[in-house]
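User:
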Amino acid sequence: MSVMIDFRNVWKQYQKPAWALSDVSFSIAAGEMCFITGPSGSGKSTILRLVTRECAPNDGQILVGGTEIRRIPGPKIYLLRRAMGVVFQDFRLLHERRVFDNVAVPLRVLGLPEKDIKRKVFIALRMVGLHHRIWNTPSELSYGEQQRVAIARAVVNNPRLLLADEPTGNLDPDLASEIMSLFREINRQGTTVVICTHDRDIVRKFAGRVLPLREGRLREREPA
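Assistant: Predicted structure:
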């Protein structure tokens, strides 16, 4: 099985003397669903920022899809990000735009024809159960519905890799389970899914591989 994400002795420091990540090594296989767990400040979000090349490590290697991403020139980083979808903790929706326009953003960046954009957006919204909300604005949706719009936007271009940062952090248990079921279904369709969370109940319920972080270090693997 091929490897989607490969961290090799990665160190990351924002401000001295603390290290956000200290000598972290792990691999996530293509098609795997993996949870990165730990309390706030443990380094979970740092891992996501490194994978998307929002920042660079101080030392070590990071390979995504077999490519050492530190070697990707700045103007070409968009090619790396084009192959992945990200569900941000704060959603980052355009609240003055309709749901359709929010989900269409990655496709318009690619310059797809409008008929293809309409088809792909509708498919993505139908997958998350929001095709009937296509002409609403995010401010007209519930918190859980906004989360679903963010997921639809992340998967509308069929990415090989989906990253999610605390996707159930502000949801009640029932909504959190619904959102996690969506991620599981996306994974079944072949997408590698990496979820950063401190919600241990969700991790136990949706059993899978767990990479536990504490104070920037990867600990012994725990059962899900």
